[in-house]
Amino acid sequence: MSEEKHLITEQHRYLPDPDMAQSTWVGDYEAAYAAYRADPEGFWEKIAHELHWHREWDRVLEWEHPHARWFTGAKTNITYNCLDRHVFGSRRNKVALIWKGEGDEDERIFTYRHLYIAVNKFANGLKKLGIHKGDRVCIYMPMVPEQIIAMLACARIGAVHTVVFGGFGSAALNARIVGAGAKVVVTADYAVRRGKSIPLKHLIEEAIINAPSVEHVVVLRRQTEQPIEIHREMEVDFYELMEGVDRRCPCEEMDAEDPLFILYTSGTTGTPKGIVHTCGGYMVGAYYTTKHVFDIKDNDVYWCTADPGWITGHTYVVYGPLMLGTTVLVAETLPDYPTPGNYWSILEEYGVNIFYTAPTAIRMFMKMGEQWPNEYDLSYLRVLGSVGEPLNPEAWEWFHTVVGKKRLPIVDTWWQTETGMHMITTTIGSPMKPGFAGRPLPGVAADVVNGNGESLPPGTAGFLAIREPWPAMMRGVFGNDEIYSKYWTTIGNLYKAGDLAIKDEEGYIMVIGRADDLIIVSGHNIGTAEVESALVSHQSVAEAAVIGKPDPLKGNLIKAFVTLRVGHQPSERLKNELTYHVRITLGPIAMPSEIEFTDSLPKTRSGKIMRRVLKARELGMDPGDLSSLDE
Question: Which of 9-18, 57-66, 137-146 has the lowest mean pLDDT?
């Protein structure tokens, strides 16, 4: 790709609040990173020793490009670290999970002891159904405690779980069940969204018609007064499965390289890929990053708003926080229902200390206005986080000023389903730069490179890549080693993340969009994210998406789709104003040739804008797989 200067320049830099800087683990990022570079294997070995292993490793790493084996010869079980060591230690009666539903009375609380018993009993229930180590179990559920119980129960007996987000339709669900060869599917009768019950079980019934591997369906019947019918030939009630079984289920001793779970990508780029993560390395990476990125204290209440159907939910709702003995809040609710103050009300009610959410939600908060967070007591908050896509500077500033009161650190994290753990962020105590995710974490050798894998100088856009293996890296794509190998062979011998990025003089990295979101206008490389960020920085704009539109003269024109904030109306004058704003912000080459105002943008259920849907509509083409589209 062309090595031209990127159009976005740093405008602001925020020094951390001294009180916050003193509480962080790093203290000196440079020293911590230098220690990692001096002895990478020793760095990870020291972290691994903080966890319980049934048998320790013979070697920390065996690396035969593109395949890695971490903690070879070691035996462990991630649920021992999530449950047993707390239950048989000092946290037996500490709150592990707080579940909050949409209604005022919808609340359930599990201590670590309660969660331990539920997981053990469901694990024994799965054994009754004939599930053994290595069998695959599909979990298709709403955000309820039973979803987490099912995940942990699978891990406890060595079954490989594949969690499917509860918003997917039957075709997408079938593809994942068949792809994984699941023997059991765990589901619920319905999910709740905006006060309405969304039936789920009929989707399972459709999805397993052509899924010969499925032997049983376990159904959580949330409606107890008039429960739905169970077809006993194949189906069993979730809690009936737990009746009459032992309250103890010994942990299966898992090899560090045994698979822990398969998680299918959302399908935004075509056929979903089954990303495989293993027991030992993933455990170490999830533990390390949760502990140090969020600086979690023993009395913290932690809320990550992600669904466990995505990788963020796996690592930073379930496994990472529970390994630390954290009190985790899980909410089956939306930011703006039943009122625009819903999230702020929950933060106040439970005294949440660490709040980790998505840029889409933050921009929604901006659109609804700062009067909503200002109504509530958010004084317990200590750390703010962002995940899922780049957090544009305008949203960063709003989050920092309105929610963080210009005091709280923001950890804007970059990572992927494939990486399993955080890779780049601004560590607590380090200077913060809106628009820049931050620097590679100690333990991560991230860089911005050209197509040959050579480091690019600061200020030059290039490919984001990882130079060395890390413990939580995926071990493969289920059933397709060729696809896996391409991650490590497209740019030299580096891991290609598929994102475009830019690095500044201090090593801070800004992710500017997917490589396939590059628009070439008159020979100039323009990242969609940079134009979108410029548009959103205008006071009238809530969200924006940009696509390239073929043009016989320039190769491509830039077309923008814009959603306005409340109180602003579409007009030709506003179009001209926005075009001028982009010219002044980025330069004339990045100006949109067309602007279309829209009430909403097509997104995946995890909140990522689906630009290919907009482009397909614009060009009259088939948009392809829409299973991940949030309707």
Answer: 9-18
